[in-house]
Amino acid sequence: MSSSSYINRELSWIEFNQRVLSEAQRKEKALLERLKFLAISASNMDEFFQVRVGGLTLLKSTGSRKKDIAGLTPTQQLLAIKKRISLQIHEQYVLYNTELLPQLKENGINFCAPKDLPRHIEDFVRLRFTEAISPLLTPLSFEPDESDNDTPPLTLPAMTLIVACVIQAKNKTNRVVFIPINEGIERFIQVGDQGEHYIIPIEDAIAQYANQLFPGESVHSHSVFRITRNGDIVVQEEDAIDLAGEMEEVLSARKTSNTVRVELRSGCSRLLENAIKQITNASPEQIYRIDGALCLNDFMQIAFISGYEDLKAPSWEPQSSAEIDYQNSIFDEIAKKDILLYHPYHSFDPVIRFIEEAATDPDVLAIKQVLYRTAKHSRVIDALIRAAENGKQVTVLVEIKARFDEARNLHRAEELQRAGVQIVYGVKGLKTHAKITLVIRKEAGSIKRYCHYGTGNYNESTARLYTDASILTARNDFGSDASLIFNAVTGRSKLLTTKRLFPAPTHMKKRLLELIASEASRAKSGEKAAITAKVNSLQDKDIIDALYKASKAGVNIRLNIRGICCLKTGTRKEAKNIEVVSVIDYYLEHARVFQFHQGGDELLFISSADWMTRNLEKRVELMIPVADEDIKLQLIDILEAGFKDNQQAHRILTDGSSERIIEEGKPSFRMQEYLQKKATQASKAKAYLRTTTFEPHTPK
To answer: Which one of 433, 590, 597, 650 is the catalytic residue?
Structure first.
């Protein structure tokens, strides 16, 4: 295939973020829900610059002219990113300034600088600044030509707002001072008064009262800016003797790494702009002039402000699974049959309970688990510590290379180790991204294995926000495969052929290519052939080429892809049978589910891996076949729902952009609403059955 057959990964990601932003632009949505999606689009953009733009900037600095699958060099990609993302930023701020701020004001939520507040509110804010904020500020004086003397250069923190001031002495001489706003200072001062809610951005308060910090001088002018540094700095594992120590050095290096973006509030004076350029060493193409408040992701906290429920989307609550009798031991329930949980429609509690019950069950001998990301206050960590203290053999692989969670995972690993848990810091040369827990239990004089396999992290916080699949099983072959996986990642043993699972990087990609080719072969023979898949991203060239060949052979291919899609749709022979949709809604779509028709013998899989080269070749991942026929039907229903959605779904177009799917005259169908109602109805039906059925206690 030529490069014209693919979409650039970075540009495809920007189009995904455009779909997120389009939710904020929908006038029919609740006002604070629109603000939430605007904040999400800004947060997404921050990580994109840190990681993707950071990596490309590093490649450019080495002189690399290596082209991606779309035929673009790092320099060409950076130019294309700048052009496209500048348009997106413009849309963000047109929306923010002309729609959201005025409508918030109409509803009593007022964003104000201190000078625009009622007098008594302004007096309160000034006092608050003097007593609670001023002591936390550390002004840093900067001389524009100080690089020519022996003074060590200033290093300003990244990803935080910085107020830049021109300070004027009584003799009219000027100097530049930078005031970083550290993490301990809240972004907004909020004051309620007579039905009105006043929100004062902290940078405006600092600018207003900065004179307090400079006795005998005055603030002549000010501006606000923010630095984004390259976050694509990874540990060099080949030479690492102490991986934890090396990771701490990487975290430190990120704080002073090269600048990849400077956001600068419009209207900044030339003196301040020159000083900012000098201290950040930013090139002109790395400067983004912003017409409004910086760091829009902080506005997420305003989206969840209390007392304005009529401005929010109706909330959905996770439901108890109708497949589980919560009066019984979770092990008894799993022993009866495989259990599918589709979060957050189904509560994550059974997964937590699985680990918590294992921690205290006297018959449990060992617990083994892979942790990639965990909640801030994690019940999973608490249960593992409790299990170790109760004398269980507990082994945990903590992936300390999980980007932006490295520090937390290092801390968690140390916490677990102190409790007596056997810790492994991932696998050399690979990230371990598999979602797996193995519990080994003594029953009737023999050993029985219980497993949890999932598509999402063991994080009870994100389990309320991300859609993910969990399968709890006590099948022997799945249990023995789990032991093989853990022996390989913790014991450095060879990963032999598994009975049911397909791990990456050893088996998964090969199996996927075989399954795609098998469908193509059936189509060539005149049989019905179909592939339906739900993934977060599709980037791997081999998978894309295999899908093109299958489409050309007549396979009906439907893909539900939330984010990156490097496959180019269209009417070309190799793409005419491929449909790609993307659903952006209340929950973040995160589950990976694959279906292959196989002549009517439907093969269903859930997986921790997206169809990206990094997942298939550079990570330890798992693809789990679905053995239970009822679970197959449930997953097929979930897959089908994504292609019925005519409320929150977008169609991916040939150039990688998107258009919202609107079907005039057809009944409205919203996938997430359908799945929420289905889970709620099943839970209520099970609860009703329990109230109308008397079940006697019998001797054990």
So the answer is: 433
